[in-house]
Amino acid sequence: xxxxxxxxxxxxxxxxxxxxxxxxxxxxxxxxxxxxxxxxxxxxxxxxxxxxxxxxxxxxxxxxxxxxxxxxxxxxxxxxxxxxxxxxxxxxxxxxxxxxxxxxxxxxxxxxxxxxxxxxxxxxxxxxxxxxxxxxxxxxxxxxxxxxxxxxxxxxxxxxxxxxxxxxxxxxxxxxxxxxxxxxxxxxxxxxxxxxxxxxxxxxxxxxxxxxxxxxxxxxxxxxxxxxxxxxxxxxxxxxxxxxxxxxxxxxxxxxxxxxxxxxxxxxxxxxxxxxxxxxxxxxxxxxxxxxxxxxxxxxxxxxxxxxxxxxxxxxxxxxxxxxxxxxxxxxxxxxxxxxxxxxxxxxxxxxxxxxxxxxxxxxxxxxxxxxxxxxxxxxxxxxxxxxxxxxxxxxxxxxxxxxxxxxxxxxxxxxxxxxxxx
Length: 423
Ligand code: AMP
Ligand code: MG
Description:
The chain has 423 residues and is α/β, with parallel strands linked by helices. The chain is 17% helix and 29% strand. Strands 13, 16, 17, 18, 19, 21 and 22 form a seven-stranded mixed sheet that branches. It has a six-stranded mixed sheet with strand order 7-4-6-5-9-8, with no helix packed on it. A hairpin with a 2-residue loop joins strand 8 and strand 9. The longest helix is centred in the C-terminal third of the chain and has 20 residues. The radius of gyration is 30 Å and the shape is elongated. The two termini are 28 Å apart. Bound molecules: adenosine monophosphate (AMP) and magnesium ion. Magnesium ion binds next to loops.
């Protein structure tokens, strides 16, 4: 694990938590979080039914050759190529009939062929399969009008994977394709890393649980359900939490408690420069360190990252859209690094903007975006919101991701290239 590099002033105390004069560029902040986080050490050995979405701990090798025996790739006839002498057509008696899952004790009788179904073992002595569409079969005889291509339509033992060959590298996420390869290669259980335990702690005196009556100053907590849903999508284990009032001591106690039972604490709100934004002070009170605070982005500027002991902390802004953008950019890579994924998932795809985009330079701006279709070159075309409202949720519904207007670009022309981050 890389040592943390606090970028607050030395001997920083809460009262010194003035905003940094220079904000870190988004891509620098992403690389800081990725290199500051190492995988959880917990391992579990689980059967296939339970490994979907998990990260394989160590490289898995083929326990058996795949396929385990030579078998037919077609419904047809297993033949011995050297029996096809002289000019055709060639006629042979059919000496057997093999279905998948059934053996053929004696091997292929000399100067005969055997009918085989896809997946059936190739009888000893046969070396080639002729698809049944190319054979006339009547009264126990098969007639071949053209010479077969030697060794065709046979799936040889070990041709897909040899015994002992690496099948999947450690650090890979196990989806349907990986599980297919593991099953074919003779595995039944594999050792995976523990799921990342994530606590979501919303902060704010104004927060009420969904369904609770509002009293004129309260709002329903949007961030907790939003982030828990995002956590489910990445495969995290959600640590049960509530919200916390804007009370520095209560926050510090709660952060300390959560640090003992989580790999990552995601707070929302209270991380900006208001006089009741206590989260960073509380983190320090709880013995934590802040690695960075403030990123050159809109929305989400106050986003902060740090640690309490080995537990990571991601401080998201309170406004829901800002929190979602900062989660997408930083939370997902933090989760993936904790999960032990060796290859970072692809966060952004190149896309073409459907409209001209302008913004003040200085910060990366993330606009809600939806995919409009593809242009003549097959490139993804996205339609971006005309403005960014960090507090509004109505626009979130139609959007399927966010598009970045770079910090140093005042205007992206229509059909210009941008990065699109799918949710
Ligand atoms: P803060 O960052 O704490 O100053 O909050 C910024 C804005 O986000 C304020 O209007 C808060 O009321 C709002 N906010 C904070 N937390 C939440 C939340 N969990 N759900 C919805 N809005 C929130
Ligand atoms: Mg607040």
